[in-house]
Amino acid sequence: LHAWECLSVCVGVCSVCPTVLHSLKYFFTGSSGVPNFPEYVSVGLVDDVQTDYYDSITQRAVPKQDWMEKVTGYLPNYWDRETQRCQNDQQVFKANIDIAKRRFNQTGGVHIVQVMYGCEWDDETGVTNGFNQHGYDGEDFVAFDLKTKTWIAPTPQAVITKHKWDGLPGRTEGLKNYLTQICVDWLKKYVNYGRSTLLRTELPSVSLLQKTPSSPVTCHASGFYPNKIMLFWRRDEEELHEDIDHGEILHNHDGTFQKSVDLDVSSVKPEDWGRYSCVFQLSGVEKDIVTKLDPKVIKTNWGRTEIKPETEIKRDGGGKDTSHLLDL
Prior knowledge:
The structure is a single chain. By secondary structure, the protein is α+β, with helices and mostly antiparallel strands. 22% of the residues lie in helices and 34% in strands. It contains five helices and 19 strands. It has helices spanning 2-10, 78-103, 159-166, 169-193, 195-198; strands spanning 21-32, 40-46, 49-55, 62-63, 111-122, 128-136, 139-145, 150-152, 205-210, 217-224, 229-235, 238-239, 244-246, 250-251, 257-263, 276-282, 289-292, 298-300, 311-313. The strands form three sheets. The protein has an eight-stranded antiparallel beta sheet, with helices on both faces. Strands 9, 10, 13, 14, 15 and 18 form a six-stranded mixed beta sheet that branches. β9 and β10 form a beta hairpin. The protein is globular and about 65 Å long.
């Protein structure tokens, strides 16, 4: 599952430059031989916030956010239709596992087929993008190239699928239309429904951490929303790129995010520490949170310190469309 779980965090997030980028993503997982786990699971996310859920045990598509109920004002039978769609897709995934097992000359064991597709929309520039990727047992299987409208097969076992799907121009054109038009239109609807949640702004708490006296100093920002941010170290007024290690943006249990960036201080002279600062920037917020590198405020594992960082504030069928999900 890890291959697509990473995408749920990373797609639509730029760790280098912030932008107002919204995303609608669907994750589908079909499995066999996994104990105490549904044979089929469908999850939808808007801006990395889970919006709906279905599995083969409950046999019912349900909203995961209160504001997703608003969709029934547009389509009264929305959740019934989603349930029916998921029940149909469940059979497709079951068949695809059997096909993939034959392709890889496998019999028993644990096997997983995954699909991730959706779209992105930059509400500042209007630029959109779409993606459709399939995986098998944690590895890439086939992916759709939106520019060429062809399928890419990174493994020999997927070449048959590539030729088969490339030979269906009607469905290919329909997939392009969904990714560039229908998906984006529904993404805009969902963002509007959940604007009080999705368009909110929350600033983080920023801490400096160090495991040992010789370890890098970690600047850790937690509790921010949305996840369009910049977090970096600078010396004087210049952003640093060497001796820096950026962590991924991670989810917090309360729906906010966290991120860290490490600074190797092994070559920094003690008298120069005051020239270094960690800077947090949130898209849409003019003021920055600047935390100066000061030994007195670093949380350590070898001694407790009172942490009061010197921070200065500066600156129609619904969104899902699985009509293109085909047997491999």
